[in-house]
Structures are given as structure tokens and as C-alpha cells.
Amino acid sequence: MTREGRCDINMHGCRAPTTCVSPPAERFGLTSQMRRAAVSIGSNNAEGCGRTGDRELVRFLHIALGSASELEFQIQIAIDLDLLRADQAAPLGNEVVRMKRMLASLIKALRAASLNSP
After folding, report:
1. Rounded (5°) CA angle 51-72-60
2. 24 Cβ partners below 8 Å, 6+ apart?
3. pLDDT tens-digit readout, 15-41
4. Is residue 48 part of a domain?
5. C-alpha to C-alpha distance for 16 and 8, rounded to whole angstroms
């Protein structure tokens, strides 16, 4: 598998949540934080792919994984604050979980490959 092929998996990150209801004051700026976390997933994947070596790529994939976890938490907060309905959150949450699994699998594969290389 080529480096480019490995990186193509997650280049777009997760969809930014567009279904949040924004009250006039938008409590805690949560929608904005969610969008930044979603963009950060793809951005860190892209940056890692642009670096030299798998070690740096893995470092940025870990950052992307952290952003995905942050987004997962923020989705739950949005539900708790009645900014997002549970039926709207389910597909977003499922996509974030899928993205986290893909990131974790890619990190695991890169680590295994680095252990097996001379």
C-alpha cells in the first residue's frame, strides 16, 4: 500500500454538524467548537500525510483521534443542552465512531509496519 493510499482514508474527516439548533446567544459557542473539531480531524490527517515518515504521520493521526473524541463528547453535550436532537445526533455520532475506528486501525497498521521494517 502506498503512503498516498493510506492517507486517502481520512482526508475529509467528519462532517461538520449542521443540524445544531443555534439559539440567539449560542450557549458556549458549542456549534463553532464542533465545527473546529470536525475540521481538525481532516486537517491533522492531511498534515500528517504531508510530513516525512510514518512516525510523524502517526503523531498527527493521534491528534486527529483526539479531535474525534472531542467531537464525540461535544455531540453528547449538544444533546444534553437541547441544542441537538438525539435522532439528529445518531448519524453524526455513528460517523465519528467509524472515523475513530479507522484512525485507530491505521495507527495500529503503521506501528506494526514500523516494527517489521529493517
Report:
1. 10
2. none
3. 444 445 555 556 568 888 999 999 999
4. yes
5. 19
- Report if residue 18 sits inside a domain: no
Residue whose C-alpha cell reads 446567544 in the numeric block: 25
Q: In total, how many domains does the chain have?
A: 1
The whole-number pLDDT of residue 4 equals: 44
Structure-block grid coordinates of residue 7? 492517507
Instruction: Write down the pLDDT at residue 27.
Output: 58
Which domain covers residue 94, as residue numbers?
A: 29-111
Residue 12 lies in a domain: no
Q: What is the pLDDT of residues 63-92, one digit of tens each?
A: 999 999 999 999 999 999 888 899 999 999
Read off the CATH number of the domain in which 105 is found.
1.20.1440.60
**What is the per-residue DSSP string for 40-103?**
HHHHHHHHHHHSSSHHHHHHHHHHHHHHHHHHHHHHHHHHHTTSS-HHHHHHHHHHHHHHHHHH
3-state helix, strand, coil in the chain (%, to 5): 75, 0, 25
Is residue 53 situated within a structural domain? yes
Amino acid at residue number 74: Q
